[in-house]
Amino acid sequence: MTNPILDHLLARRSVPANSLGEPGPSAEELKLILRAASRVPDHKKLVPWRFLLFQGEVRASFGRVLAEVCAAEEKDSGAFRLENEARRLLRAPLVVAVISRVVKNPAAPEWEQILSAGAACQNLIVAASALGYGAQWITEWYGYSPGIRRALKLADNERVAGFVYIGTPKEKPEERERPNFADIVAPWRP
Predict the structure, then answer these.
(1) How far apart are the C-alpha atoms of 22 and 4, rounded to whole Å?
(2) CA of 176: how far to CAs of 13, 94, 98, 147, 181, in Å?
(3) What pTM, to 2 d.p., does this model score?
(4) CA 181 from centroid of its chain's CA atoms
(5) What is the pLDDT of residues 100-142, one digit of tens each?
(6) Which residues fall within 8 angstroms of residue 29, CB to CB, at 6 or more apart?
(7) Contact 93/29 with Cβ under 8 angstroms?
(8) I want to staple 29 with a disulfide (CB 3.0 to 4.6 A). Which of 25, 36, 149, 158 is the partner?
(9) 172: region left, alpha or beta (phi > 0 left; psi from -120 to 50 alpha)
(10) How far apart are CA 166 and CA 44, in angstroms?
């Protein structure tokens, strides 16, 4: 039996940000990707996530912020490191910061809301790859940095779920080893 959705899920592979290039998604494709990303489980319809887009010159502007924050937060960051931070978002034509936003609601536990943001990240990469783009979901140091939190203007109830890099793969990624079913699947026994 062939099923295009299952075939896609079984073949999907992250493409390292350094292996992405132009072109990125068109405006119409980006709308589709973001619509797909927002169609995730969301207990109580709280929309516990939002998206920040980095495209064009904004990537270089934010790169300068990354370099400044890195220099302020990490001792001995060095010129080479700071140059890399300044170019970090230039690795792909589109970077989407997925912001997890926990909304106080006794009927929707915080954990479920955080998982919903993770599902939004997953849908972003699946939708992008379904359109033929490569994508990688990463956090790296700046996903946890207090200075970057301030630069992104995150509220107290928000944090970075991830940065999803999207672009055209420069090369097909190699398959990697996957978990053995016997190690991850077992029937429940009383």
Answers:
(1) 26
(2) 9, 25, 26, 35, 15
(3) 0.94
(4) 26
(5) 999 999 999 999 999 999 999 999 999 999 999 999 999 999 9
(6) 131
(7) no
(8) 25
(9) beta
(10) 30
